[in-house]
Design brief:
The protein folds into two domains: 243 residues, Peroxisomal Thiolase, Chain A, domain 1; 147 residues, Peroxisomal Thiolase, Chain A, domain 1 (3-Layer(aba) Sandwich). Helix content is 33%, strand content 20%. It has 13 helices and 16 strands. It is globular. The relative contact order is 0.18.
Length: 409
């Protein structure tokens, strides 16, 4: 018999703020956090100069603590610390006896580590390298730095799958708890904003180049959208079994009742609506729910033409036009490896607040997109039992998470 899996701690660092009250206020203001990055003008051929940087308070770590961390690992560790505190586990010695693991990811390692090795290749000298260069650069830098910093001895599950790194982090942590492999898991993802990340999408003509109007971009699902905007941040969720949470009297934010992940198997960068739809259907099947049970969908909603169209038709294939949907990327850009975790955090909190943010700048739905119940212009008050959060990544990797509201604790 599988364990029920619940979320008992959450913390995020995002362009909208680094605590939920601040983020909630920002969402209700109906203004995004996108800004001009004038320093990116130095890169010849980089057309976009828009990004969303994280609101981040320096944690005051010493040099020894951070020698193996880049900016994204520091954000990941800080969010993990805050999530542990939120779950009431900071001083519990049991988290260091192997009972707690980490399932965490990012699209890539820290830029400063990557630069060290890039300089070596260019200069033909190892003078730019030091003992921490690789630890900062490696794709699993977030997961292992959390584990080492907190002294955790459980399993480490690195998830470096681009835009599904955070959601797969949560999904694989869910599976570890459900099958009794760990008592607790720290799950999530992180990413730092760099010109290199923007260039990935810029070379595919997928970024917004409307640099004069950061407040109007990105525009998911809108016929006049100009492309995506990159962002940064980190988010950590503490997962444990329902019985464990009840035993120690923990606050429960939500129960994870469905998770599915699959791959398109067709193209590295072009999304496939058929397998996207299948991921949602598989999550519903695991949760033993019907489409009508889902009260809100957090869309991946990147504001790219191919992505928006494929996702909308996949969603329509399951839900028709009956379920409210919106994209949080319209507020904070595409935070890549962090987006699955940040959006799950915000979606769970919106469910508990009974208010869901609209997609900003969605004025005229692209006629190529499917007919869905898009939340536009103003937020919507909804009292719902279940919400779904979807993410889709390069490589054709698809994820779908379903959260249940836990009442009367």
């Amino acid at each position: 018999m599988k364990n029920r899996v619940v979320v008992t701690g959450m913390a995020g660092i995002s362009p909208l703020g680094e605590d939920w009250p601040t983020v909630f206020t920002a969402l209700k203001s109906l203004k995004n956090a996108i800004k001009l990055m004038p320093e990116w003008a130095q890169y010849e051929g980089l057309d976009t100069q828009l990004a969303a940087t994280a609101v981040f308070t320096d944690p005051g770590f010493n040099r020894k603590q951070t020698r193996g961390m880049g900016h994204l690992a520091i954000m990941a560790v800080v969010s993990a610390q805050k999530a542990l505190a939120d779950a009431g586990l900071t001083d519990d010695p049991a988290i260091q006896d192997g009972s707690m693991g980490v399932s965490y990811g990012s699209s890539s390692g820290a830029e400063n580590g990557i630069l060290d090795f890039s300089k070596m290749l260019i200069t033909k000298s190892t003078g730019s390298l030091n003992a921490s260069s690789y630890v900062r650069m490696m794709p699993h830098t977030t997961a292992v730095n959390i584990g080492v910093f907190l002294g955790l001895k459980g399993r480490v599950i690195p998830t470096s799958s681009a835009c599904t790194s955070g959601s797969q982090g949560i999904g694989y942590a869910y599976e570890a708890i459900a099958h009794g492999q760990q008592r607790w898991m720290i799950a999530g993802g992180a990413e730092e904003s760099t010109a290199g990340h923007a260039a990935v999408f810029d070379t595919l003509y997928a970024t917004s180049t409307d640099n004069e109007h950061p407040e109007l971009n990105p525009r998911p699902f809108d016929k006049d959208r100009d492309g995506l905007v990159t962002g940064e941040g980190a988010c950590s969720l503490i997962l444990e079994s329902y019985d464990s949470a009840i035993e120690r009297g923990a606050k429960i934010y939500a129960e994870i009742v469905g998770y599915a992940t699959n791959s398109d198997g067709t193209h590295i960068t072009q999304p496939n609506s058929v397998t996207m739809q299948l991921a949602m259907e598989q999550a519903l099947q695991l949760a033993k729910l019907e489409a009508k049970d889902i009260g809100y969908i957090n869309a991946h909603g990147t504001a790219t033409a191919r992505g928006d169209v494929a996702e909308s038709h996949a969603t329509h294939g399951v839900f028709k036009d009956q379920t409210p949907i919106s994209s949080l990327k319209s507020y904070m850009g595409h935070t890549l490896g962090a987006c699955g975790a940040l959006e799950a955090w915000m979606t769970i909190n919106m469910m508990n607040e009974e208010w869901f943010a609209p997609t900003l700048n969605l004025v005229n739905v692209d006629p190529s997109c499917a007919d869905l119940d898009y939340i536009k212009a103003q937020g919507r008050a909804l009292d719902v039992e279940y919400v779904m959060s979807n993410n889709f990544a390069f490589g054709g990797i698809n994820t779908s998470l379903i959260f249940k509201r836990v009442r009367n604790q």
